[in-house]
Amino acid sequence: DIKAKWREIVSQPVDAQVKFFLRAFVLDFQGKFDTVLDIADSFKNFADGVAEEDRDKIKELGEFQCHVFLEKRGETLTVRDLRENLKAEIRLDPHHNVALMEYLLWKYQKNLHQLFTPPPEGSVPAHLLEALDRAIEAHNAAVEAERQRQKQIKDLAAAEETSRNELERHTVKKQKEELQGQEFNQAFAALKARKQKREAEEALKNAEKVDPYAEEQKRLAEEKARKEEEEKKKREESRSRLKAKASLWQ
Fold first, then answer.
1. Is the pLDDT of residue 216 over 70?
2. N or C: which end of the chain has fewer CB within 10 A?
3. Is the confidence at residue 215, as pLDDT, over 70?
4. What are the coiled-coil residue ranges (predicted)?
5. Which residues, in sequence order, are bridge partners of residue 99?
6. Contact criterion met (CB below 8 Å) for 125 and 200
């Protein structure tokens, strides 16, 4: 049931949605999945009233939040247009919140049938999906590490400004400067994450493409040949039995 599958995927956090999307269309996003991951990060930034510790639980945006998100991205469509995009395939509440998956399907002109139909068997080697998963994890880890570092710097700067104790201010300032000095390390980690993503993208780019239509035609041809062989074998066995019976009367 496509509606049940849809409810299940949009009930998951943004990170799970973008991972599902990329795995479903892994061969279509050669060299581009970094862009999709950045969209997911940006999407989460527009969720209002979410505590820092609950950021990873974000799964959708309200109408106004989504409107701002679309506007900031320079998109010309409205939230209403976005909600209408899946109308031909599934009936949704006209006032529902907007999940990241809805935007991704519209952005990249994909539909629900494609989303929930796995690639033909053998078209995506297992090690490529594993490489993609590792790259996604590296990207998310780098983004989260930088976000936490910036938060700590901001908290320490506030503590330095409000502290009335000279020794305490000096200690806090030193901690803040140490964190600021970690920028190179964070940049190196981000560079390493990008390298992993590029390697995965290169592997995907070099992967042999499989045409689903051609594969289906090949399967049907093999099935036809198998049935013809079985029929031929049955006819030969039947002739052999008739020949054996005839020999009894000679």
1. no
2. C
3. no
4. 129-162
5. 60
6. no
